[in-house]
Amino acid sequence: MKQTETVVERANDLNLQPSISSALGDGLSKQVAFNLREVDGNLDDAATLARLHLALVGYGPVAGLGKGFLAHFCYSKLIVEGLMRAAIAEVAGEPAGFVAYTARAATFHQKAIRNYPFSAARALCLSVVTDPRAILGVLKALRLMVSRQSDTERMIADPCAEILTFGVLPAYRDREFVRATGLKISERLVQHAVSYFQPLGLTEVQAVVYATNRPTLMFYRMLGASIDSFVQAGIQSRLIRLPIAPETGAVTRP
Ligand SMILES: CC(C)(COP(=O)(O)OP(=O)(O)OC[C@H]1O[C@@H](n2cnc3c(N)ncnc32)[C@H](O)[C@@H]1OP(=O)(O)O)[C@@H](O)C(=O)NCCC(=O)NCCS
Questions:
Q1: Which among 51, 56, 218, 239 is the best mutation to test ligand 1's pocket, defined by most ligand atoms within 8 Å of the CB?
Q2: Which CATH superfamily is domain 4-243 in?
Q3: Which ligand 1 atom sits closest to the C-alpha of 175?
Q4: Can you tell me which atom of ligand 1 is nearest the CA of 184?
């Protein structure tokens, strides 16, 4: 699989909001440099991913464990150990979105802590030093792990594909930006994860989304996913199942 995808998107009419125009820079008024970059667990990228995660999915159970935990454990240790993967989408060199995914969805949550308790504890300490509220996040995260352990509803075994989380900063999912650049970054991120799963012979990718997260549910529905009710860690959620075309590795629209 290509680790880095670099394309230059043409925009005929880049009449963007001032904030986006300045992010793109004057020299790129007719072109948007888009880069989708798989990360290797280095700390600079891990810090960027932690920032994106907190900005976009700050409500989730893992975000509650704080920036230190995200950067020094999730987006570094777990990637280096091969438990999960992540990619950053960049527009004109600026982070615009991210995706975290795994082909080990059945065991990911348990192995993450059981196999690396000292790294997890050290990263959590770093979080607590910066923000003591991170300690409260532990209960939420433990509840998630227990819930995943008794996850009989899905009856999954590895390899099993899951998009753990993803997101795009609002400026880059703005309708005007999408129209002007033709760039739908959310779809690129999902397709990036899918193009990793397809050569492994996986024909479906899963995701768990809060029932209240309507934009994300709309997004997956639009891609042709099936959506079922699901309770995870006591929270009303939806289980997303997105088919992967075995030949092309494309997500299949209805
Ligand atoms: C998930 C995400 C990447 C999708 O981005 P996107 O594809 O660029 O699209 P949007 O978020 O703008 O909206 C998706 C669809 O839901 C619709 N929508 C947006 N807000 C909505 C709302 N409050 N209620 C109902 N529909 C809504 C949009 O109109 C859009 O439909 P359209 O494509 O037909 O216009 C983006 O919503 C995001 O980053 N969310 C925050 C992070 C997050 O929650 N991630 C999921 C973690 S599991």
A1: 218
A2: Gcn5-related N-acetyltransferase (GNAT) (3.40.630.30)
A3: 12
A4: 8
- Tell me which residues have their CB closer than 6 angstroms to ligand 1: 56-57, 165-168, 173, 186, 209, 213-216, 218-219
Cα(99) to centroid(ligand 1), Å: 15
- Region of 201 on the Ramachandran plot (φ > 0 left; ψ -120 to 50 alpha; else beta): left
By alpha-carbon position, which residue is closest to atom 30 of ligand 1? 215
pLDDT band at 86 (very low <50, low <70, confident <90, very high): very high
Q: What pLDDT is stored for residue 228 in this prediction?
A: 96
* CA–CA dist 60, 56 (Å, integer): 10
pLDDT tens digit sequence for 218-250: 999 999 999 999 888 788 999 999 999 877 666
- Ligand 1 nearest atom to the CA of residue 173, by list position: 8
Give the rounded distance of the alpha carbon of 175 from its chain centre. Answer: 21
Is the pTM value of this prediction over 0.85?
Answer: yes
Exposure string of 33-49, with b = 16+ CB inside 10 Å and e = fewer, is bbbbbbbebeeebbbbb
- Cα angle 161, 56, 17 (rounded to 5 degrees) comes to 120
Task: Give the tokens for residue 97.
Answer: 């979105």
Give the span between the Cα atoms of 188 and 193, in whole angstroms: 9
How far from chain centre, in Å, is Cα 68?
18
Mind listing the pLDDT tens digit for each residue in 142-188? 777 777 766 655 657 889 999 999 999 999 999 999 999 999 999 99
